[in-house]
Design brief:
The protein is α+β, with helices and mostly antiparallel strands. The protein has helices spanning 5-14, 50-68, and strands at residues 18-21, 26-31, 34-41. 41% of the residues lie in helices and 26% in strands.
Length: 70
């Protein structure tokens, strides 16, 4: 079962990402340890697309690795 957009945003907030507003339903997320920005599109109640879930998980994993000093 896919996660909701609001769940992905909550995961990003918990890991220390900062939300920047975008156009329409898009939000951009930045983190000091993450190169670039991550764009999350869709309204909070919608199911997240598989590629978006993977992008969020990859970003969270990159930040965790850098926090551990790898």
């Amino acid at each position: 079962m896919p996660k909701k957009i609001r769940e992905l945003k909550q995961l990003l907030r918990q890991q220390g990402f900062t939300e920047l507003t975008g156009k329409g339903s898009h939000t951009n997320w930045i983190h000091p340890l993450y190169i670039g920005k991550l764009t999350v599109s869709g309204k909070d109640g919608l199911d997240a697309k598989r590629y978006l879930e993977k992008a969020v998980q990859d970003a969270l994993e990159e930040v965790r690795r850098k926090q551990k000093g790898e």
